[in-house]
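Progress against Task 2.4 (sequence-to-structure conversion) is shown through the following example record, which the project officer requested during the mid-term review.
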Amino acid sequence: SSSTLGANDIVISGSAAAAGQISRSENGRYILIPGYNALIGAANTTFTTNSVVRTLNGSGTMGAGISGAFYSSGNNNLRGATSDDGTNFWMSGSSLGIIHTTASSPTTLTTVSSTSTNNRAVFIFNGQLYLTTGAGSQGIYSVGTGKPTTASTAASRLFTPTNNDVYGFAISPDGLT
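Structure tokens generated for the chain above:
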């Protein structure tokens, strides 16, 4: 552990069971890691304005990704993130729904869907954006059509679990599994 914060450091809250929902970018080039730019053990890593989504490429290099006030004070935990190709980013958390931003303008945020606001993970499979939630109407949801970037997109529940929480899942390239 270092006492100096680096440019690409990342931690998760350490107290939120649903935090740290990683995903693979749609183009397969990156692993998306949501968290906070803070030192290990730093107080109040959640509820702050230091949210980040780091990109990890195939050679194991951690990139800066995006940073900003995605889930700032009063809006609770940043939990999951995904991207198409490192240009567009969609994030999930515990109170805001699905948020969209871009690498070129990471502080411009759009609430793409608030059908479910207490979400776990967010993924893109076969050109379609999905979210998972274990709160309220638990399940796996399809968000609009394709990869929406505009506000107020409805999400439709595709799967209802029998044991509540839904975190990660995958859909095969042919869409049948």
